[in-house]
């Protein structure tokens, strides 16, 4: 507990404090490592109470940030670098390990590009922001972009100038990415309940990517089937959270978007956005971190390359403020840009 803030140092409503006291949680950091739905089940509090608890805890951590050594060695606070210092800074080190991160956006915004980049980043040692293991990539709609992956592999020394070239050359990146294609929800559930746990248990992978989570739920159900869809969605989420917690692995889900309707919850989308992540509140309540990416009406130039400018926003996260960074997509990968 050295260097950690005990939860009883938070200014909490007595009823909320009593609920937290009944759990095994001791530090603020432990509270922030648990998703909102899990905190609801653990404490018996309402969604609003849990939201206020997480907000209070996150504010306290920003005022009294933990020591870097604690962030590195506390397994619940371990991060997976996205391979870019600008974006890592926004995410306070990268993706949370043992949590579910969603990246939503329109087609062509760069979501798959970032997912591929994570599949390479995870293979580096922990001191370079990786987890020293492979990744499993589940495709539910499009074929796996193998040519783009090979290009990213060839450009790793340009993207990751912080890593010794000898180390980069020693890694067999493509051998450590396990690709699965699932055409329906049944095959997706079989993959998540049988093949993925085997890879995780053997230590062959430490990152799970699902691209995309909305495709199958949108294609297999009509609007009138919302009850059955939500039931299947919660079963899927339960499996996903179990894998994330049991193997302390980050889960990265790409999501499609839908038009924003009048009266939509502004906390679920970036300010000024005309679209919202698909699957509604049933899905949003299962996500620990929600990110959104969009294309802007500008082009940036760097050396002999040009890129349509993108914007990566934090929509919600228990440990992050709502913030965003501009980024470009270059042949070596996704990188933040200063504009």
Polypeptide structure, described:
The chain is of the alpha/beta class and 339 residues long. The chain has 2 domains: 7-63, DNA polymerase, domain 1 (Orthogonal Bundle), CATH 1.10.150; 78-336, P-loop containing nucleotide triphosphate hydrolases (Rossmann fold), CATH 3.40.50.300. The chain is 38% helix and 22% strand. It is built from 14 helices and 13 strands. It has helices spanning 14-21, 28-32, 36-43, 47-63, 68-73, 85-90, 111-121, 146-154, 156-159, 165-170, 185-201, 214-220, 226-246, 280-284, and strands at 79-80, 95-96, 100-104, 134-139, 177-181, 205-211, 251-255, 257-259, 275-277, 289-302, 305-316, 324-330, 333-336. The strands form 3 sheets. The protein has a 9-stranded mixed beta sheet, sandwiched between helices. A two-stranded antiparallel sheet has the order 1-2. Strand 11 (305-316) and strand 12 form a beta hairpin. Helix 11 runs parallel beside helix 13. The protein is globular, with a radius of gyration of 20 Å. Residues 65-76 have low confidence and may be disordered. This is DNA repair protein XRCC3 isoform X1. Pfam families: HHH_XRCC3_RpoA, Rad51. Residues 76-257 form the RecA family profile domain.
